[in-house]
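Researcher: Good morning. I'm working through a list of sequences from a screen, and I'd like to move beyond sequence-only analysis. For each chain I'm collecting a predicted structure so we can compare shapes side by side. This is the next one on the list. No need for commentary yet; just the structure.
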Amino acid sequence: MIVATTTIEDLDRFVEIYGTKGADKRKLHGSKGSTVFRDPNEPNRLWAIFDWDLDGWGNFASDPEVPPIMQEAGHKSRPQVAELVGRFEA
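Model: Good morning. Structure tokens for this chain:
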């Protein structure tokens, strides 16, 4: 599992591209799905939880076809992976 954050220009535009072209590209690199949240304090910041391994993420991030898709989706910055601190019971 991977958690990443990014900032966007427009939520509707992001959702349209993320759910189509972005989804196809992520699936190609082994992503099994994602859940996206909007930050309550920064409306242009999104958080995504991916069912994905780091190798697949790395391949996705280095795919030369990905930056134009992200640009079309309105990313203001490159997504950043959050550091895993630990896993806990309950």
